[in-house]
User: Fold Aspartate aminotransferase family protein from Massilia litorea.
Amino acid sequence: ESRPESMSAFWMPFTNNRDFKANPRLLVSAEGMYYKDVDGNQILDGTAGLWCVPCGHAQPKIVSAVREMIGQLDFAPTFQMGHPAAFDLAEQLMDYTGHKFGHVFYTNSGSEAVDTALKIALAYHKARGEGGRTRLIGRERGYHGVGFGGLSVGGIGPNRKSFGPLLPGVDHLPHTHNLLKNAFSRGEPDFGVELADELERLVALHDASTIAAVIIEPVSGSTGVLVPPKGYLKRLREICTKHGILLIFDEVITGFGRLTTPFAADYFEVEPDLMTTAKGITNGVIPMGAVFSKKFIHDAFMEAPAGIELFHGYTYSGHPVACAAALATLETFKEQQILEHAKGMQAYWEDAVHAMKGLPHVIDIRTIGLVAGIELEPIAGKPGARAYQAFKKAFADGLLIRTTGDIIALSPPLILEKQHIDELFGKLATVLKNLD
Ligand code: PMP
Assistant:
């Protein structure tokens, strides 16, 4: 059934996706592990919305916290004033991140969090009298949202193509994608140190005193669940420390339990200087992002000899309703032991993911925590077409998956049980067996 033409305006208004216009797949309600579509079909949520619903849909505590706050304080500027929930949340977030950071800055999205983190990094060096450190380093195939900062440090060609020129002075580390391909085996490949040493090459090329920060997704999500090889992130940390470069982890996807730990930084035991997050922070209920920064970064601003001109902030930073949702999300994590539950599911999940090996078209499988990338052999001359077909078939069969290129990315709510894993991979196997 065809939907009205105007439907195309609410998502990707620049694209001319006729297939989507014909069937936008309207979701009308959600609870726990399932969506319901406009035709009343139950759809198992294999993607936690868009990687953003760790505690499952319609969590009563979060829903009522939001309702209550709207009634009590619908808006309060955090510019030159504040409200208690913003401070309570900061305290709870410090707790949740094990007091490794000194400060948190609220944004409304992951893209804003990334741009904020990049701006903090640039201003930090200026505050210390090292204003020559303006170069930013991302990673090829990194995804850091759609702001100009995030686009510039991001490495996905098609996303950047129509919007140049982007920020000058940006380099991209080689990605791990091709190197990891066909890594069906469960052991992590161990060329991480070697790969991270590419950063030393860039440092030698440009001089450390020109480099402000390196930004990286610990596990890249939107480009198809690229798990870093052993030692990669630790080595990046060492190199950044050695040269006075700030290390930024973009944990918009990996934060809030995706790897069964609070953040990926905990999983890999590497401490970034700045860390961005969004999505799961409010369980997807209200838009919100955040940037965590180490105390020494904040101190540099406070101690800047001549003071420093710095303006940055959003009208909706620390929105009371978002803070209420985030506080209730953190409480739900504790009360329902979301991380412990996710850990308990991991082995069963991993077995189920690896059981996809050998199914038609599957050329690679990657998984870590409760996230997986299943890569399909592309149809010649039509990149992405096979996975998109899988997406459509899966949806029609009551399963929501996400595709990026010819990679199927799976990231269900962390509350899933074994029966959901069985249902997800049972449906996916059927889909794979029936693709062109
Ligand atoms: N960084 C990463 C790693 C992301 O995955 C995303 C979104 N998928 C973003 C930034 C941007 O977040 P948002 O869409 O909330 O702006």
Q: What stands out?
A: The radius of gyration is 21 Å. Residues 109-111, 114, 143-145, 217, 221-222, 250, 252-253, 278 surround 4'-deoxy-4'-aminopyridoxal-5'-phosphate (CB under 6 Å). Confidence is low (pLDDT under 50) at residues 6-10. Residues 384 and 406 are 4 Å apart (CA to CA).
